[in-house]
Hints:
- Keywords: Oxidoreductase.
- This is SDR family oxidoreductase.
- Belongs to the short-chain dehydrogenases/reductases (SDR) family.
- One of its GO terms (molecular function) is oxidoreductase activity.
- This protein is of the alpha/beta class.
- The chain has two domains: about 5-250, NAD(P)-binding Rossmann-like Domain (Rossmann fold), CATH 3.40.50; about 250-285, no CATH class.
- It has helices at about 15-25, 50-60, 75-90, 110-135, 150-155, 165-185, 220-225, 270-275, 275-280; strands at about 5-10, 30-35, 65-70, 95, 145-150, 190-195, 235-240, 240-245.
- It has an eight-stranded mixed β-sheet with strand order 3-2-1-4-5-6-7-8, sandwiched between helices.
- The radius of gyration is 20 Å and the shape is globular.
Amino acid sequence: xxxxxxxxxxxxxxxxxxxxxxxxxxxxxxxxxxxxxxxxxxxxxxxxxxxxxxxxxxxxxxxxxxxxxxxxxxxxxxxxxxxxxxxxxxxxxxxxxxxxxxxxxxxxxxxxxxxxxxxxxxxxxxxxxxxxxxxxxxxxxxxxxxxxxxxxxxxxxxxxxxxxxxxxxxxxxxxxxxxxxxxxxxxxxxxxxxxxxxxxxxxxxxxxxxxxxxxxxxxxxxxxxxxxxxxxxxxxxxxxxxxxxxxxxxxxxxxxxxxxxxxxxxxxxxxxxxxxxxxxxxxxx
Length: 285
């Protein structure tokens, strides 16, 4: 795929999945801003040299990239990233919010600082970034936003104890995807999400993995960022070089909000009696 003339931002772009996305887009001709705070594996600290070193390594390969070491936890810092991009390249076509942090804290121990850190990266950052990117995306011929969710949040069988804050943030990004996909539809701003599985430093993996490689997720992200993608509101699950796209889809025959086309019940007792039928959705067509 050819991204010549396109400009992209990849948050969390200096390592792991993000760096793989950056490299692929840049090799395809895009100009890419690598945004990465340079935090450690527990989400603490800040090191601007991490983004700069990643940029210099790719620049040495002849790729057009720049580094940005800013914190994205505030409206102003996200505005500054978008401004940096426009100053450097004059436009913005693709926004990929890959930055993330996996922290464990049981609900009984949940504290404000821990929750705030999870919300900063998973809720506030994508909202502020999209706010400031929006006017520039409106001028793009193929504007794309890609957010990041997680199978661990979406599917109960993959959940882990202690991921309540993480899961809340990852599910929030699906709400953002749906809302902005609707808001941007007329202007052609397509908003999708990637749900990647990859062995990176977030897993404590420091050597090249023999499975679940980050680069095996990248083709799906590159597609979502491209003009070849014509859909919005999809979650692309990616693992071990395999892909499946899903979305939150209504049952057939629904006339929302007055008719759910499902089981009628007038009392709690009737709900209880019909529960086995109520909890089984119609098969999707």
